[in-house]
Design brief:
The chain is an alpha/beta fold. It has one domain: Rossmann fold (3-Layer(aba) Sandwich), CATH 3.40.50.850. The protein is built from 5 helices and 6 strands; from the N terminus they run βααββαβαβαβ. It has a 6-stranded parallel sheet. α5 links the parallel β5 and β6. It is globular, with a radius of gyration of 15 Å. The protein starts with a strand and ends in a 7-residue tail after the last strand.
């Protein structure tokens, strides 16, 4: 199996203003650890950025930019998206096909929207998925805290077997152990 790392929506407008997402600094550090190890193992890294015209997350705006502590390299790939689904109306699947990828390692923001939707779509397309259980996050909501939302997705996504591919949740430190 050839894997790629997807870093979803870790953008300035989502991480920098107060209140910040749950464990934002921890998540940013974990993502940098995951991408550093991935590159060392020749695993492609793909940064996915959400955008919306005429908004604070408009393409090439300050809010759209990747969060400043993320480490990127010239060998990384970048995908723009406009919905929670990183595959819908994007070139992500073409990039994955060109890289001959059949397995995804997913981290980023927002656990209950873009991370969840992308994982389910990826599984439906036949990709096995590893959710980095301590490297995705979201903001607290009225109905649940960011910690509860992360815990929920770490527990429920791996229970989906009907796609016919494995979905698992693994801590960053155990990915390549």
């Amino acid at each position: 199996m050839k894997s790629a790392v997807l870093v979803i929506d870790v953008q300035s407008i989502l991480f920098d203003p107060e209140p910040q997402p749950f464990e934002s600094k921890v998540v940013l550090n974990k993502i940098n650890e995951v991408t550093k190890l991935a590159r060392a193992k020749s695993v492609p890294v793909i940064f996915i950025q959400h955008e919306q015209p005429n908004s604070l997350i408009e393409y090439e705006s300050g809010g759209w930019a990747l969060q400043s502590s993320l480490v990127t390299q010239a060998c990384d790939h970048f995908v723009r998206k406009t919905t929670p689904d990183s595959f819908l109306n994007t070139n992500l699947q073409n990039v994955l096909n060109e890289l001959d990828v059949d397995s995804l390692i997913v981290c980023g923001y927002a656990s209950e929207f873009c991370v969840d939707t992308t994982i389910r779509r990826a599984a439906g397309l036949g990709y096995s998925v590893t959710l980095v259980s301590d490297a995705h996050t979201t903001h607290d909501k009225k109905h649940a805290s960011g910690a509860q939302i992360r815990e929920h997705h770490n527990a429920t996504l791996p229970d989906i077997s009907s796609f016919g591919v494995k979905i698992e949740a693994v801590e960053a430190d155990s990915l390549w152990a």
